[in-house]
Amino acid sequence: MQVLTRALYALHHRAVQVPRASRVASALAGLVGEARSVLDVGAGDGVIARAVADKIGAERVMGVDVLLRPSSQIEVVPYDGRHLPFPDGAFEAVMLSDVLHHCEAPAEVLGECLRVASRVVVIKDHFRFGPVSKALLLAMDVVGNAEAGVLVRGTYFSPAEWVSLARAAGGRITGLVWPLRIHDAPFRLITQDQLQFAARIERAREAPRTAAATTAAEA
To answer: What's the CA gap between 77 and 203, in Å, rounded?
Structure first.
């Protein structure tokens, strides 16, 4: 049984996690632009943060997580899931990849990210469009996080709720990549591009009044 379980995890890593990490990193890097430092909140194994840092030319890359992995491609330090152990503006960019829907207090965590970021916060997450999409997202979450033992809360937000969440955290969405392709067929039929997005968030007081969200569909 253990042999079969390990084989299934290996298949999931090769067919699902690897292409997902590459595409998520590309979307997040495109929203950041150039940056000299980046913090990954909920960094996991650091694969996505390392790829983003390489793409944006970041000389300093760190991560935080509530559950530290045995190994990571970047330096990852523990945090309590709410408060980031860094001063204001410590990093030029802060990123969260499929993290906020796991948080007990997502607005508080996003607010902390905006505090620590001197320029921009970028996220990759999901859109919920109704009970069917919520059930699908929950199923994907349970499967995707089983090996790492990450707590799955099943909290997914609609597009309007994401706008409200950003405002509650003291920010505003200034860039959007949606729908976002993260997998190839046949997995793409399950993960569904329209449920995936990446966004750029800036502190509300610093966002230009003429800034508008941009939509880019990845072919």
So the answer is: 25
SS3 111: helix
Is there a domain that residue 211 lies in? no
Q: What's the CA gap between 168 and 110, in Å, rounded? A: 9
Q: How far apart are CA 156 and CA 198, in angstroms?
A: 14
In the structure encoding, which two tokens stand for residue 176, read together? Answer: 């959007």
- Tell me how far CA of residue 7 lies from CA of 2, 3, 18, 71, 188, in angstroms: 9, 6, 16, 20, 21
Does a structural domain hold residue 83?
A: yes
Closest CA to 66 of 53, 76, 55, 52: 76
Number of domains in the chain: 1
- 172 located within any domain: yes
User: pLDDT tens digit string along 120-174?
Assistant: 999 999 999 999 999 999 988 888 776 666 777 889 999 999 999 999 999 999 9
Q: Which two tokens stand for residue 41?
A: 């909140």
pTM score: 0.85
**CATH code of the domain in which 167 resides:** 3.40.50.150
Q: What is the pLDDT of residues 73-91, one digit of tens each?
A: 999 999 999 999 999 999 9
**Domain range for 148:** 2-203
Q: Which of 66, 57, 71 is nearest to 29 (CA)?
A: 57
Q: How far apart are CA 205 and CA 207, in angstroms?
A: 6
